[in-house]
TrEMBL record:
<dbReference type="Pfam" id="PF01338">
    <property type="entry name" value="Bac_thur_toxin"/>
</dbReference>
<feature type="compositionally biased region" description="Polar residues">
    <location>
        <begin position="1"/>
        <end position="12"/>
    </location>
</feature>
<keyword id="KW-0749">Sporulation</keyword>
<comment type="similarity">
    <text>Belongs to the cyt1/cyt2 endotoxin family.</text>
</comment>
<dbReference type="InterPro" id="IPR035918">
    <property type="entry name" value="CytB_endotoxin-like_sf"/>
</dbReference>
<dbReference type="GO" id="GO:0005576">
    <property type="term" value="C:extracellular region"/>
</dbReference>
<feature type="region of interest" description="Disordered">
    <location>
        <begin position="1"/>
        <end position="22"/>
    </location>
</feature>
<dbReference type="InterPro" id="IPR001615">
    <property type="entry name" value="Endotoxin_CytB"/>
</dbReference>
<dbReference type="GO" id="GO:0030435">
    <property type="term" value="P:sporulation resulting in formation of a cellular spore"/>
</dbReference>
<protein>
    <submittedName>
        <fullName>Type-2Aa cytolytic delta-endotoxin</fullName>
    </submittedName>
</protein>
Amino acid sequence: MTDLSTTAQAEQSAADGRTGGAGTATVAFKPLFEVSPAAKDLVAAAEARFQSALAESAAEFRFGPIQAAAKDLPGGSLVRIIPGFGLQEQAPTHVMVLTLKEAVRQALSRPLDNDEFWERTEKALTSAFVGLGEQLDAPHLVLRPTAEGTSYDYHLLFALEDEETEGFLYVVAFCVHVTVGLDRAQVLELSVEDTAPYSIRLDALCVRQPVA
């Protein structure tokens, strides 16, 4: 897969934001945390900052506030930014899931082999395409019809801290915009084996904080 890391110019582009048209409904990250008790307070504080930043984008999605929140975390360092990675492909749903899973790996910027984390990550990313009908009232999903088919935003917040992370907490803010060339009813019934015309745009970043 193509390296998704940012350049200085691309980072500025991400900060400028992008239109999502989510309306005024509450929008929130869906959290997926795999951390030790020592990092629970730290990850809770990071989540609060990211949730607040995303809420600023309720009417019009912008990645800039999320990037600013990452830079403001105490003792934090921005590890990687993936600004507006795009993919357009007629492909099975599970291929899209694996593509986004690789994007999480690239955001972390180092090999981390926590099996539980990766199993949960793949399950969460599968939910970004499968079972949407059961998530219509969830704040991490903003779904709407478009001229091209059906479009939606899906927001995930990953956190990992274990022996491999060597005293650091890694948090990945993951905002994916998906357009599927199918009508709403078809999109709500997709399975992992179904093939569909997908267009994906991903804005993501990873920030690292020391665990006291």
